[in-house]
UniProtKB/TrEMBL annotation:
Keyword Ribosomal protein: yes
Domain of life: Bacteria
GO cellular component, one term: small ribosomal subunit
GO biological process, one term: translation
Family named by the database record: Belongs to the bacterial ribosomal protein bS16 family.
Disordered, as annotated region: 86-120
PANTHER family: 30S RIBOSOMAL PROTEIN S16, SMALL RIBOSOMAL SUBUNIT PROTEIN BS16M
Biased composition, class Basic and acidic residues, residue ranges: 86-112
UniProt keyword Ribonucleoprotein, yes or no: yes
HAMAP family: Ribosomal_bS16 (MF_00385)
Species of origin: Palleronia caenipelagi
Protein name (record): Small ribosomal subunit protein bS16
């Protein structure tokens, strides 16, 4: 079994509430799971103690059994000091798209052409 530690969504529309579960990766996101390990409520303020609650003993057990945490869960575990911090960098995220780069290049060319005759 390929085990994962992941979030299972609950709550009503626009009011999410997540359970942190250990589940087989082949099961549906909100479907069957092996064990509930904690809760996550994104509606609470970031400094609230109740925002993320985890049974760290059981999480350690599942990590020892080879369960892979999802990205969001690994961030929670890094904040708790269980996992070492990963280097995350998406340098291309801040770059504009191809068309926006083309428009900026055209605008720069027009500006340079407009300045050249004005200097003479």
């Amino acid at each position: 079994m390929a085990m994962k530690i992941r979030l299972a969504r609950g709550g009503s529309k626009k009011r999410p509430h997540y359970s942190i579960v250990a589940a087989d990766s082949r099961y549906a996101r909100d479907g069957r799971f092996v064990e509930k390990l904690g809760t996550y409520n994104p509606l609470l303020p970031k400094d609230s103690e109740d925002r993320v609650k985890m049974d760290m003993e059981r999480v350690q057990y599942w990590l020892g059994e080879g369960a892979q945490p999802t990205d969001r869960i690994s961030r929670f575990l890094e904040a708790a000091g269980v996992l070492p911090k990963k280097e995350r960098a998406n340098m291309k995220k801040a770059e504009p798209g191809k068309k926006a780069q083309e428009r900026a290049a055209e605008k720069a060319e027009k500006a340079a052409a407009a300045e050249a005759p004005a200097e003479e």
